[in-house]
Amino acid sequence: MIDLSLPEGWMLALRWALLLGPVCLVLMMVRLRHLSHRTQIAGLFAFLYGVAMVFVTHSFAIWMGWWSYGWDALMVNALPADIILGGAVLFGPGLYFSFPNTRPLMICLPIIIGLHGTIFSALEPLVFAGPYWFFGVLFVFATAHLPAIYLAKWTEADTHLPFRCALLAIMTGGMIFAVLPSLIMRAMGGAWDIFDKPTWLISLVLFMLSITSLIGVSANQTLCLQGRGTPIPLDPTKRLVTTGVYSYVSNPMQLSAALGWVVLGVFLQNFWIIAASLMAWVFVQGMVRWHHRHDLLKRFPTGWPEYKANVPEWLPRWRPWTKARAVLTLSTASRSHKWVASLFGAATSLDIQWSDGRSACFENPENVYGFRGTCAIAAAFGHVNFGYALLGQAWLLFAVPWAYLSDRHMRRET
Predict the structure, then answer these.
(1) Residue 27 and residue 59: Cα distance in Å, rounded?
(2) What is the Rg, in whole angstroms, of the alpha carbon atoms belonging to the chain?
(3) Phi–psi pair at 79, nearest 5 degrees
(4) N or C: more exposed end of the chain, with fewer CB within 10 A?
(5) Does this model's pTM top 0.85?
(6) pLDDT attached to residue 346
(7) Number of alpha carbons in the 13 Å side-chain half-sphere of residue 275
(8) 113, pLDDT greater than 80
(9) Backbone angles phi, psi at 119, to 5 degrees
(10) What is the 3-state secondary structure (H, E, C) of the chain?
(11) Which of 261, 271, 280 is nearest to 205 (CA)?
């Protein structure tokens, strides 16, 4: 271990270098390499993911006692804002633009061993290392830095869409539930006094947040499966998506964020976090509607106006709006399928067929991804009402990734 023993002034200069150095690196790479538009979008996604996850993981590291930071200037939630931004820039667009053809693990491994492994615990008063600091470093790299570079790599190549959408969902969750509330409390007052609350209240709030988050995360999954794209307009879907949760509300992710801020603000007794829900409304009135006019309307001139006229922006419909009839095929040999069929008596635009096969199958002309087994029944729930749709989407959030990963594993072995 190298003992730097630098004076406090030099440590302060090092802190600023950790921000300005990565920024200069990115600017230099952009100028020298003449990056394509797609590459720049990839770098932006990596940076945004890094901001959210560096903030979350470093906050967790401080809570675990792995390390802590000195000084009081530019601190948010006991974290130096400049170091958080610098880390997101470096372990995102900075290193990816510099080494675009190198595996992300080969980029990060020398930094973990060579830099963090030699001087991290000698950076006082910038950083005060705890007894398990190296485990914390590995945790941050595995959950924040490596995925950010992979996200950039996959976005530029337009590959691994399910993994990209998953990382973007994690990024969005980190921004909504960690970064933005912390910034609000830093500016307007408040604290993360979560564990001072009664256990029953914490459990209730977690349940409510899981419901509000379900709306947004299921929308992200639907855009991936049926739209063949991401929820970010810079990397948009290739098809107009009108099924799943989108058959009930046209802005499910903004609705999810607004409801989440209301629940979190009430829990923390912070009016300003509750008021942040107005940000979602402003975002829809400005950016989202601009995006609709200049992107969706141009790309889908026939389907979008009809969809927009029938599906509300904020208050979900109780019954879905559908253009085509879907078909749920059930097995005549299954008793459970006969019971399931009775649940769809009030379903909208859903035909039930019977076959001698053992597995259920769901097909919708508006979809490109079909569902089988329990996923087929869960997808069909979306034709009953909004409550049933959320139950079905909750199952699909776990079952579809499991089926996807199992299929990838089987194809590798064959």
Answers:
(1) 28
(2) 24
(3) -120, 140
(4) C
(5) yes
(6) 82
(7) 6
(8) no
(9) -125, -5
(10) CCCCCCCHHHHHHHHHHHHHHHHHHHHHHHHHHCCCHHHHHHHHHHHHHHHHHHHHHHHHHHHHCCEEECCCCCEECCEEHHHHHHHHHHHHHHHHHHCCCCCHHHHHHHHHHHHHHHHHHHCCCCEEECCCHHHHHHHHHHHHHHHHHHHHHHHHHCCCHHHHHHHHHHHHHHHHHHHHHHHHHHHHCCCCCHHHCCHHHHHHHHHHHHHHHHHHHHHHHHHHHHHCCCCCCCCCCCCCCCCHHHHCCCCHHHHHHHHHHHHHHHHHCCHHHHHCHHHHHHHHHHHHHHHHHHHHHHHCCCHHHHHHHHCCCCCCCCCCCCCCCEEEEEECCCHHHHHHHHCCCCCCCEEEEEECCCCCEEECCCCCCCEECHHHHHHHHHHCCHHHHHHHHHHHHHHHHHHHHHHHHHHHHC
(11) 261
Q: Which residues pair with 326 in a beta bridge?
A: 350
- pLDDT at 120 (0 to 100): 74
Q: Do residues 386 and 214 touch, judged by C-beta distance below 8 A? A: no
Beta strands 361-363 and 350-355, pairing class: unpaired
How many CB atoms are closer than 10 A to CB 195?
A: 8
Q: Domains plus CATH for the chain?
A: 1-159 (no CATH), 161-317 (1.20.120.1630), 326-390 (no CATH)
Bridge partners for 75 per DSSP: 80
Q: Report how far residue 49's alpha carbon sits from residue 46's, in angstroms, rounded to the nearest whole number.
A: 5
373 sits in the region (left: phi over 0; alpha: psi -120 to 50; else beta) called left
Q: Which of 128, 139, 168 is nearest to 58 (CA)?
A: 139
Tens digits of per-residue pLDDT, 241-275?
A: 999 999 999 999 989 999 999 999 999 999 999 99
